[in-house]
Design brief:
By secondary structure, this protein is an alpha/beta fold. Helix content is 53%, strand content 13%.
Length: 140
Amino acid sequence: GMKIVLADIGGARLDEASRAVSAIAGDDAVLAVATDVSKADEVDRLAERAFGAFGGVSLLMNNAGVGDNPGKPWENRDSWKRLLDINFWGVVHGVEAFAPRMLASAGPGLIVNTGSKQGITTPPGNLAYNVSKAGVKTFT
C-alpha cells in the first residue's frame, strides 16, 4: 500500500489525523510532520523527511490553505500577506521542494495543486482568497 506523509502547522489536528490514518494503514505507513508551508525551509525539511522515511514520493497532494477574509489589502496588509503566504506560496514551496527530488528518482510522479472554484469565478466577498487561488491555478 501507499505510505502517507501528513503535514500541518502542528498541534491536535495533525495528531488526530495521524492517529486516524495509522489506525487504517498501520503506524509504519504514516509520517506526520509539523510544517508551516509559508516557510520554504520547513517545506524543504518536510520533503527531506518524506524521502528519507520512505525512499521516494510518487504523489504530492499540495493542499494547504486558509479561508480567512482579511478585507481590503490597504486596510489589513499583514493578514493578506499571511493568507497569500499559505495559500499561494505554500503551493510554490511544495513544488520547489518535492519536484526536483521526484524527477531525480526517475519513478512515477504526480503533483496535484489544489485550487478552488473561487480562483476561476472570483465571487465577491473574499478578494484575498480569490486572488490566492487564482494564483494557484495560474502557477499550476
